[in-house]
Amino acid sequence: MTVATMLVNVPDTPSAYLSVCFFGRFVTSVGGMPVERWRAGKSRSFFQYLMLHRNRVMTRDQLRDALWPEAEWRASSSSLKVACCGARSTLGASKTAEDAGSPIRLLHRDGGYLLDADDAWCDIEEFRDLVHDGMQHRSHGRAEQAEESLTRAIALYHGDFLAGQDEDWIAEAREYYRSLALGALDVLRSAAVERGDADAVFALGQRTLELDALHEPTYQDLIRVAGLRGQPEQAMRWYQLCERRLQRLIGVEPSADTRQALHQVLSGRGRPVAL
Q: Does this model's pTM top 0.70?
């Protein structure tokens, strides 16, 4: 399977008792059954936050600051307990670590809360591990293994982290995972340029620009590849798209590197080749 093909295919979710997808539309399944409704107002956000920090104790203050940033708290407030009870009920989770019959445990521990699960899969965890593995392979000169891991990672990234939700803790995580995706795409695109795979360059460039419409290195690669294919008009269109977006969104002109990429194509220094 080519890089371009993998980029448009969403991989099957591995079978696990608890399965959670954060990228794009938030989806949770328990025991193979999708969770359609969440009880209590903040029970879903409570679970999302604990799943993001799975196997770590999150203090009451951390949870309150994340989920109720504007609220004034009193000692008698029950909002956190209500959210926890709602999440436990929805997930069928136990509240004690000793309950061996429950594969999901939502525990009150050390003044905070902890999500523990014996058999769980989460797209952001696998994505993060694959990006880490890919970058490790790259740093040790294992280009083929790096490309395989990073391509698998990008296939998981089929939408921003919790798209459509706008809490501050979500925005922070969203930018983190987006930066990982952009880094992986940079490596994959550079590899595609080196081996002359124009289809992969275009597919990877499109994915990159979906995440960052102002990513000039992507426009530079697209301009150069168009030039190498003997398509100066296409190279000019990529440059003009870059120029329009930069001017409209942040009021600047394309960088010297982007202008140079176009100049090389138009001056004939990027000679047409069969890609």
A: yes
